[in-house]
Amino acid sequence: MIPIAKRIDCDQPLMSMRNETVESLPARMAIVRRSVSSAVTTYAPVIGFLAALVLLGIAFREHLDFSQQPLEPYRMFFELLVAGLVISLLRSKVGLVTYGMFGPIVISFILIESGLLWGLVLFVNVFLIALATYLVIQPFRLGTAHRICALVMTVAIAITTFHIMSDNGTLPQEVNALQAFFPAIITAWYADRFARELTERGWRAPAVRFSWTMVAIVAAYAVVANGTIVTWFMQTPESWAFVFAANVYLGAQSSTRLKEYLRFSNVYGQSRFSVLRASVRARLHNARARLRGLFGAETSRVEPTSVMAMNRRNRLIKQYNPQHLYPELDKASMKRAFHGTGVPTPETYALVGSLSDLSTAEEIIDTRDEFVIKPDSGYGGEGIIVVNGRTENGDFETSKGRKTPEQLLAHTRSIVEGQYDPMGLEGVAVIEGLVHPDDQLLSIAGQGVPDVRVIVFKGYPIMAMTRLPTEESDGAANLHMGAVGVGLSIADGKALGGYQSTNKWFDDHPDTGVDLEAFYVHNWGQILDTAVMAAEVSRLGYTGVDIVVDETEGPMVLEINARPGLGIQNSTFDGLLERTEFVEKLPDSFDLKSPGEKIELARTWDRVDWTEDAIELEAQWARTDADADRSVRTGDPDHERKRESADGETDGQEEVIAR
Q1: Within a 10 A sphere around the Cβ of 107, how many other Cβ atoms?
Q2: What tens digit of pLDDT does each residue of 131-173 get?
Q3: Choice among 7-11, 216-220, 241-245 with the minimum mean pLDDT
Q4: Residue extents of the structural domains in the chain
Q5: What is the spatial distance between Cα 603 and Cα 460, in angstroms, rounded to a whole number?
Q6: Is the separation of the CB atoms in 350 and 363 below 8 Å?
Q7: I want to staple 347 with a disulfide (CB 3.0 to 4.6 A). Which of 69, 126, 433, 529 is the partner?
Q8: What is the spatial distance between Cα 659 and Cα 654, in angstroms, rounded to a whole number?
Q9: In the CATH scheme, what architecture does the domain 439-627 have?
Q10: Is the pTM of this model over 0.90?
């Protein structure tokens, strides 16, 4: 039986570790040598670096008189260090979502120099001025360089004004320090990010992120302003190596963040206290297992829950999604790959990669009534405009309201100039055909373009959901905007109930009233085939494939996601971690299965909840397949019925049940 990672029952003692395989002494010594060699390769560089830090600390202690506080002139650098440590803990262990990592560290210096009250007043005022500037220049759709330049100019003038007002006594002297003003320049970047999210996603998402950013800034200020920790760190250079090692250790752990205990509370199925207790016991067990493994003992790792947390997902992505593939994963590159390999995807009218290509975009806008304009980068649906038709006066009805041809062309230009590129670099505007969704999911949602997200791991589809637009999401199939995610069974595409990112669970669609547990998605086999094919073309080991079912063309790939979100676990009421570990524990021979075989195996495993012996299930499936083939050769009239029974599918399961 394949050893699937165990989970701790909070009310049961840990399993005994006395089930190691008894081997000969030479074999054990070989295992020990391999373990030690692997450990040396991994840990020797960082141990050497820590040793250098220790020696540096000793040298400081030997050559400086710390009774005279020799490092006090350089206190600012130690404040930066401590602020960075605080914010990194808030992000990685608590789960705060902030605008960047470096930004909150720098902004905290405004509070340190000006005090909490006037520092917040200065920051918020400069932020609002920059935000107002963005909204004023937004109709002109400036490129990234000129847009950021305009914001920085406004912020610089505002800071100068505040400085003069402080000199004249209009504002208190607390805001007169130049050290407080220079960090405020970064608020131009904050305003740009906030306004872009506001335009694309509404108020809720950017407001929540900005609020958590403020919490992180104030927390960093509170720790640094106290001075005790900073002073201790300055006065004990021997501690530098220890703090660095602690940071590396914490960053290497794939523990569940505190926020995720709340986010996935229904999936855990236990009290939050029980989950925390199980997590601690799992850590202790795994630490002992690692030590025993160094001495050749065959041990097993345990997990406290089946839920995949963000830190664990990031490690999985790092392992299975090589960095060198990322430059080829933008929408434009994947479009070329899909068309070149036969993966069904909406027709591409143009890839506008430079200002000289705008004439092509203008021709498409003039001659076509339906199309989609999207940036090749960006996330969460940013920059996507769906054009549904042309009005009598030549304007267009779009997902962003009525637009003129000139406005659509200006939007295309802003994409090319890098407005939606994460680094502000020049982008590519993808202009593609409009998908007309199949009636089934459209009748359930009542509006928009519903899609299906399939998580594919090592070629196996392991989890799926359909995202249904709502009135709250304004017709968009984006969970963060209010769409409903409905979990789907990998085995047969059966709906499992609905979830909204505002922590609401639904039995019925909030707008149409359709039962969200009583339908099977049509063309399920084709959807899985398409998802696995797209994942194979992308060469990603762990990916989320977004598929829409066109009324005439069938399943078509909209997008490949190298970092799919974790909200699908709430939609399916199940954890991803159990399924990824199931696949990871498979013998190497399973990597050589064909795409069709991997899909059939995944559907078989899903029927038994990914818990039974994979090899035995494969054998049963193979026997069923062989029996069906023999029935075909011998003319058995019941072979189709037998095959359907083995697959767990009936004609009734392919019918949508709707009110």
Answers
A1: 28
A2: 999 999 988 877 778 888 999 999 989 888 888 888 888 877 7
A3: 7-11
A4: 74-235, 347-432, 439-627
A5: 9
A6: no
A7: 433
A8: 16
A9: 2-Layer Sandwich (3.30)
A10: no
- Just give the CATH number of 347-432: 3.30.1490
Closest CA to 472 of 203, 267, 656, 260: 203
* DSSP structure class, residue 310: H
Structure tokens at 326: 């990322």
Identity of the amino acid at 451: D
Q: Model confidence over 388-409: pLDDT tens digits?
A: 999 989 999 998 889 999 999 9
Cβ atoms 420, 444 nearer than 8 A: no
pLDDT tens, 258-299? Answer: 888 878 877 766 555 555 665 666 566 556 656 665 555 555
| Cα-based torsion angle of the residue sequence 491, 492, 497, 498 in order, rounded to the nearest 10 degrees | 100
Angle made by CA atoms 456, 461, 463, in degrees to the nearest 5: 90
Is there a contact between 386 and 398 (Cβ–Cβ < 8 Å)? yes
Asked whether 7 and 281 are in contact (CB, 8 A), the reply is no
**Which of 97-101's residues contact partners 24+ apart within 8 Å by CB, and which partners?**
97/208, 97/209, 97/212, 98/209, 98/212, 98/213, 98/216, 99/190, 99/193, 99/194, 99/209, 99/210, 99/213, 100/189
Token pair in block for residue 168: 């004249």
